[in-house]
Design goal:
The chain is an alpha+beta fold and 359 residues long. Helix content is 14%, strand content 16%.
C-alpha cells in the first residue's frame, strides 16, 4: 500500500473519535420509553390499557365488562348485546298488545315492544283483547265479533226513519232496522216521526200526541174523544159537494156520526158558533128518503127537527131543488134536509174513517 493512502485512513479514524463501551444512544432510549408508556396508558381509568380497550373514552367499556343490552360492545369481544336480545312485537298505540306483522329482536325493556301479539288495531289504544266492546260497529276486543256486548236499549224501526216503536224494544246495538231512539207513533210511515213537520192531514205527523192544530189547518180544530181524533170546523159558506171536496183535500171527510155521543158533541160545538147551518155527511141523493152516511157507515144516530126531513124542494134557496143533503143547527142543534146546491151552510170535517172513534 502506498504511504499516502494509509495516511488518509488514519486521519478519518482519528476524526471519528474514540468509542466508549456500554454507552446507549439517547434518542433510541427515549423512543423505547415512550413505547413502554403507551403500552401502559389507560385514558379512561377503567383498568384496561388503551391498546386493549375498545372504547378508551368510556370507563364502562373494557374487556371483561358485563355485556348490557344497549346496542354497544361493552366487553370488547367484537359483538353487541350477544345473548341478550329477545323476540318482541311492535306496540304502536301503547296499549300493551302488539302487532303480529311487526316482529323484531330487541332488548327486553325496549319501549314500544311487547311479547303479546294479539292487537287487531295497533293504531287505537282503545282496541285490544279485553276491551269493552261498545256499540260502534267495530271489533273493540279483537275476538272477531262486532258489538256483541252492546247493552243499550234499542227500538225496532220498521220504516227506517231513524225512530223506533216504543212497543218493540230490545237490548243491543243500533243498526239496520233497530234504532237507539224511540218515539215513533207510526212505524209503518217514514214521514211520521218526532222530527217530522206537522201538516193538516188528520194525522199526528210529529208524534207529539196531537193530530193537527189550527196553526197548520185552514179551519178551527177540535178533538174528540182524544187528541188523536181531529175535527175541522170550517166557517166558509159553501155547497155540500164543495164542502165534501174541501174535507177530502186535507185527508178528512164530511163528518159522520158513529154514535150518539159523537153526534151530541159535534152539535154542542156548532151550537157555540154564530148562528148558521152546518153541512154533515148525510144524504139521500142516491134514493129519495133513504138517508145514508156518505162513507157507508151504518146510521146509528139522527136528530131531525120536528117534521124533517120533508123534501120541501128547497124553498130556502132553490125552489125546484130536491133537499138531498143534511145540515144541522136548523132548530136549536137539530137537523134539516136542505138542497145540496145551497151555499149558505158552513161544514164540519172529521179525520179519515180509520181514525174515527166508534162509541
Amino acid at each position: 500500500m502506498r504511504p499516502l493512502a494509509l495516511a488518509s485512513i488514519c486521519l478519518a479514524a482519528c476524526a471519528a473519535g474514540p468509542t466508549t463501551p456500554g454507552k446507549v444512544d439517547r434518542d433510541d432510549a427515549a423512543a423505547d420509553a415512550d413505547t413502554a408508556d403507551a403500552g401502559r396508558r389507560d385514558a379512561d381509568n377503567d383498568g384496561s390499557p388503551d391498546k386493549e380497550d375498545c372504547a378508551d373514552d368510556d370507563a364502562s367499556i373494557y374487556p371483561g365488562a358485563v355485556e348490557r343490552c344497549d346496542g354497544m360492545d361493552n366487553n370488547c369481544d367484537g359483538q353487541q348485546d350477544e345473548d341478550l336480545l329477545v323476540s318482541r312485537y311492535r306496540d304502536e298505540d301503547g296499549d300493551g298488545y302488539g302487532d303480529s306483522t311487526t316482529h323484531d329482536r330487541v332488548c327486553p325493556d325496549e319501549l314500544g315492544w311487547v311479547e303479546d301479539v294479539t292487537d287487531c288495531n295497533d293504531a287505537d289504544s282503545a282496541v285490544h283483547p279485553g276491551a269493552a266492546d261498545t256499540c260502534n260497529s267495530a271489533d273493540d276486543d279483537c275476538d272477531g265479533l262486532i258489538d256483541e256486548d252492546g247493552t243499550g236499549t234499542i227500538y225496532h224501526d220498521a220504516d227506517g226513519d231513524g225512530y223506533g216503536d216504543d212497543d218493540s224494544v230490545a237490548t243491543g246495538c243500533a243498526g239496520g232496522l233497530w234504532s237507539s231512539t224511540g218515539g215513533d207513533c207510526d212505524d209503518e210511515d217514514a214521514t211520521v216521526n218526532p222530527a217530522a213537520t206537522e201538516i193538516c192531514n188528520a194525522h199526528d205527523d210529529d208524534c207529539d200526541g196531537t193530530a193537527d192544530s189550527a196553526s197548520v189547518c185552514p179551519c178551527d180544530v177540535q178533538h174528540w174523544p182524544d187528541t188523536e181524533h181531529p175535527y175541522l170546523y170550517c166557517t166558509t159558506a159553501t155547497d155540500w159537494t164543495s164542502a165534501q171536496n174541501s174535507c177530502d183535500s186535507y185527508g178528512y171527510a164530511l163528518v159522520t156520526f158513529d154514535s150518539a155521543d159523537e153526534g151530541l158533541w159535534v152539535e154542542s160545538v156548532v151550537y157555540s158558533y154564530t148562528d148558521n147551518y152546518w153541512w154533515v155527511g148525510h144524504t139521500d141523493a142516491a134514493s129519495e128518503g133513504s138517508w145514508v152516511w156518505a162513507d157507508g157507515s151504518p146510521v146509528t144516530y139522527t136528530n131531525w127537527s120536528s117534521g124533517e126531513p120533508n123534501n120541501s124542494h128547497g124553498r130556502e134557496c132553490y125552489d125546484s131543488s130536491e133537499e138531498d143533503c143534511a145540515m144541522i143547527k136548523w132548530s136549536g142543534a137539530s137537523w134539516n134536509d136542505y138542497p145540496c146546491e145551497c151555499t149558505k151552510p158552513y161544514y164540519v170535517c172529521e179525520g179519515a174513517s180509520e181514525l174515527r172513534p166508534n162509541q
